[in-house]
Amino acid sequence: MAGIYGDKAVKALKSRNELQKNIYEKMAAREKSLHFVSVYEMINMQVGGIDIRITKVLRCLEIIQGAWDKLKTDLEPIKNLLEGDLKYAVAPPS
């Protein structure tokens, strides 16, 4: 009689231990998932909307590039005049 109950007790203990192990594994997986979600939310707060900010920066860079191109266009004839004048003003080496 004790053998039957002892066998049942051992099987119940094994089953309980397996279930406990399964619970711990699921809890660990849940903790990993929660950690992932919190990291994702933190990253999203830090870089969320970065596309809007990059678009604004690109617009500013386009404006600066346009101004630089205009300046270059305005200064190019002056540079050419100076180069031409200096070519004749400097005596060639003997």
What does the model show?
This protein is an all-alpha fold and 94 residues long. The chain has helices at 2-47, 50-89. Helices cover 91% and strands 0% of the residues. The protein is built from 2 helices and no strands. The termini are far apart. It has 2 domains: 1-48; 49-94.
Short recap of the structure:
The chain has 94 residues and is mostly helical.
Essential attributes:
rod-shaped; 94 residues; 0% strand
How many individual domains? 2
Query: Helical segment tally?
Result: 2
The largest sheet is:
none
SSE succession: HH
Categorize the overall geometry.
rod-shaped
Distance between the termini: 126 Å
Q: Classify the beta-strand content into a percent band.
A: under 5%
User: Which radius of gyration do the C-alpha atoms yield?
Assistant: 39 Å
Please provide the count of β strands: 0
What is the arithmetic mean of pLDDT? 89
Helix/strand-derived category reads mainly alpha
Report the uncertain regions: none
DSSP helix fraction: over 70%
